[in-house]
Specification:
The protein is α+β, with helices and mostly antiparallel strands. The protein has 2 domains: about 1-35; about 45-115, no CATH class. The chain is built from 2 helices and 6 strands. It has helices at about 5-35, 110-135; strands spanning about 50-55, 60-65, 70-75, 80-85, 95, 100. The strands form 2 sheets. It has a 4-stranded antiparallel beta sheet with strand order 1-2-3-4, with no helix packed on it. The termini are far apart. The relative contact order is 0.08.
Length: about 140
């Protein structure tokens, strides 16, 4: 174990670069898988669109689905899917993007992280100000 200081520095730098590459690959993989299996983007085709989804429990959902010109409410569970009723599309409040309806997108990880971090920092600063005012 008589490594020179330069060899140790290169070992540490190599380890850090390797770690950064692994994190980047994990990020890219997660982003790809998230887009592929997302209910709002990956589950819609040319003629069938999922307009809205509400989670009722861990594995049970209500979905408003548009197939062609017909809009229906369906119940979806792990092993079963059931038609509930037709839905009057004029009664729905949906965002419109060009000719196709889209489910509002959830923020990506970076945006969600910035929002949560900003809220936490704001709470921390308020708490710090309250502590200073008490003194």
């Amino acid at each position: 174990m008589n490594e020179s200081p330069i060899a140790r520095v290169f070992t540490v730098l190599f380890t850090l670069v390797l770690f950064a590459v692994i994190l980047y690959l994990a990020y890219i993989t997660t982003k790809y898988i998230g887009k592929k299996y997302s209910v709002s983007s990956g589950m819609s085709g040319k003629n069938i669109k999922i307009l809205d989804t509400v989670r009722m429990s861990q594995d049970k959902f209500l979905m408003i689905v548009k197939a062609g010109d017909k809009t229906v409410l369906i119940g979806v569970s792990k092993d079963h899917m059931e038609y509930i009723c037709d839905v009057d599309e004029s009664q729905l409040s949906l965002t419109e993007n060009g000719n196709a309806y889209e489910v509002p997108q959830t923020p990506d990880f970076v945006q969600a992280f910035k929002t949560v971090l900003g809220d936490k920092m704001k709470n921390f600063k308020q708490k710090e100000n309250n502590d200073e005012n008490k003194k």
